Amino acid sequence: MSEAPRDQTTKGSRGQKRSVAAAKEGKNETSRRSIARSQGQIKACGGIMIVEIAEFSIRPESQREFDAAIQRGVESVIAFSPGFRRYEVQRGIESPGRYVLLIEWDSVESHTVDFRGSDAFLRWREFVGPYFVKPPQVEHFERVCGTRAA
């Protein structure tokens, strides 16, 4: 006779044991957040790396070409810069000529000194610069808290 599998438990915010299955089903919000945090889906507040957010405006009719240019530019130039971690490009739904490029860097200096101060920046702009209808807006952000897909 085999034993039924035991339900995993976790401690709630007040120290009570709670069922992992119940927490995942959303029966207890505190437990659900605790489980997500323990599985790395919710990161602790604060952090070392920064995010560069660059907003571009292009002519909507050049979307297809710009999509290819920005990918080639990031993957063949920026991705090899010291301090680069990852990137993501988003295109506006209501404003198809509006793009946001998010790049995670080790530090602001990785972007502003190591990349922007190098010949790599000029090579990057050769890929994307011809599509801009106005100069990009660029700012740096630090993570406060949030979630990430598992």
What class, by secondary structure content?
Answer: alpha+beta
Q: Main beta sheet, described?
A: 4 strands, antiparallel
Proportion of strand residues: 25-35%
Which bin fits the share of residues in helices? 25-40%
Mean pLDDT equals: 79
Q: Report the CATH C-level class of the largest domain.
A: Alpha Beta
Given as residue ranges, the uncertain stretches (5+ residues, pLDDT < 50) are 2-46
Question: What is the architecture of the largest domain at the second tier of CATH?
Answer: 2-Layer Sandwich
Total tally of structural domains: 2
Radius of gyration: 22 Å
Distance between the termini: 36 Å
* CATH fold naming of the largest domain: Alpha-Beta Plaits
Overall geometry comes to globular
Strand and helix order: EEHHEEHEEHHEE
Would you mind describing this structure in some detail?
There is one protein chain. By secondary structure, this protein is of the alpha+beta class. It has two domains: 34 residues, no CATH class; 94 residues, 2-Layer Sandwich (Alpha-Beta Plaits), CATH 3.30.70.100. It has five helices and eight strands. A four-stranded antiparallel sheet has the order 5-6-4-7. It has a two-stranded antiparallel sheet with strand order 1-2. A two-stranded antiparallel ribbon has the order 3-8. The longest helix has 14 residues. The chain is globular. The N terminus is likely disordered.
